[in-house]
Amino acid sequence: MLVVDADSAVRSALKFSLEVEGFAVHEFRDAAALLSEHDLPLNSCLVAESNLPDMSGLALVAELRARRRAVPAILTSTHPNDQLKRRAAAAGVKVIEKPLLNEDLFEAIRGALPHSH
Q1: How far is 41 from 101, CA to CA, in rounded Å?
Q2: What is the pTM of this model?
Q3: Fewer CB within 10 Å: C terminus or N terminus of the chain?
């Protein structure tokens, strides 16, 4: 699991929650940190904030795909607007609204990773 969020508290909470669900988590503060990582796990899923400090979550997904590191992706957003939802849907990316209070994120991850629990 690849988690990218500028807020360290959100990253820590996501890491904890995902590890409780049985996922191995690699966390990054921004897109550059993820993109500079050369040993990304295969068969992973990206959970990224839609508005990262250095690029949008959709731009990060596009960059990973351009580098032939396509992974299932889920964006988190506090107030996702219709344009974001349309652009994400066109890219095959699900948008989950923050705060992440229910099972939406886990359901999206399970749907993105057919071999997960």
Answers
A1: 27
A2: 0.87
A3: C
